[in-house]
Amino acid sequence: MSRISTGISSEHLSAIASEFGTPTYVYDAALMRERCRALDAACGDYPHAMHYAIKANATLAIVRLMRECGARADANSGGEIEVALRAGYTAQDIVFTGVGKSAAELRRAVALGVKAINAESPGEVERIAAIARELGTVARVAIRINPDVDAGSHPHISTGLKTNKFGMSIEAARAMARDIGRHPSLRIVGLHVHIGSQITKTAPLTRAAETLSDLAVSLVAEGIPLEHLDIGGGLGIGYQVGQTVVSPQEYAEAILPAIRRTGLTLVLEPGRWIVGPAGILLTTVVDLKAQPPDPQTGEARQFVIADAGMTDLLRPALYGAWHDISVVSPRPGPDVLCDIVGPVCETTDTLGSARRLPPVEVGDLLVIRDAGAYGSVMASNYNRRPTAAEVLVENGAWRVIRRRQTVEDLLQWDV
Ligand SMILES: Cc1ncc(COP(=O)(O)O)c(C=O)c1O
Hints:
With 415 residues, the protein is α/β, with parallel strands linked by helices. The protein has helices at residues 10-20, 29-42, 60-68, 78-86, 103-112, 122-135, 170-180, 202-221, 248-260, 272-275, 315-319, 407-411, and strands at 24-28, 48-53, 72-75, 94-96, 116-119, 139-144, 186-192, 228-230, 265-268, 279-291, 301-306, 325-327, 336-341, 350-357, 365-368, 389-394, 397-402. Helix 5 (103-112) crosses helix 6 (122-135).
């Protein structure tokens, strides 16, 4: 049986498409488990806690699977906190991150007593203190620093430069750490950094870890006790065949020497690396259109119009992201130069430009790979398009973990 990047066979994909229709996200549970274990194992016996970044894929069954694998949770909104609780996490398993947390979100996190609220600004720390005082509790706070490190990834997913909206400068964080000691309703438990996503080089990760550790060492020397250092997420995956990425071992080697100096527990917030390669988006060709021949080569070119578009997988339209696209059951014949596009009324609704596919016909199934992270979570109802179904495959069997929306589902919110 031919295999499609995940452990799922093309025969299974055809069966899933007939049963549930398309577009459909299909996830490989075994691969997610394996990747979760591999990342955890890379940290060896150094004290660490892996908090799965729910933002990467927030479908309840996936978050539950992460919990079964021993990961804890990194929530980026009030909604993600509720997902984590529904998935069986306790408040002590949750770190709460995110720029611009609302008063209601902070109140919920403080009332629950989450493991750490990763605070982004002095104003936010004041708001947390006021809520904790009012609730008669002590909120556990970690300070997110902005190390002014270029993650080297796409500018839209880089978060560690001082011109980015995230975190506090080292000096502001130091002042904040001292100030927190004066608030009886706050306890500083850690420092946090996240310099971006889809990072494919170790140097920026090492620099971020060193900056975090240097600050921790000096704060502890001042008598400010800390429990953990949270290095965030960001480990990249190979979207293109042969793309150089950082392995879990290289990742651990890049960050652990700096963290080890502090003796503090390492917190990691991986998302993409665990779930990205374990998901694919299955879509059907709904139309074909000839284009004018390529002006340079004179080669024939066509639009392959799929039933999945930017409302299902936004990454190509949002960041020009590249996903491998292939045909589930290739037909014989020479490859054709194609632009694979979606049905949405926007020219940016392109899933892949200038790709070569074997001859395709209307009704053929396509697979868009590495769509397990930042795929279904970014879906929208633009053009009143219902979101795709999601299916989890485990031990050769599958089940729907999120049913396809219907137009009725969409209309029920209109009053
Ligand atoms: C604070 C924080 N932690 C963790 C992550 C997860 O990152 P990734 O999916 O690249 O591992 C993100 C995503 O950007 C984030 O903003």
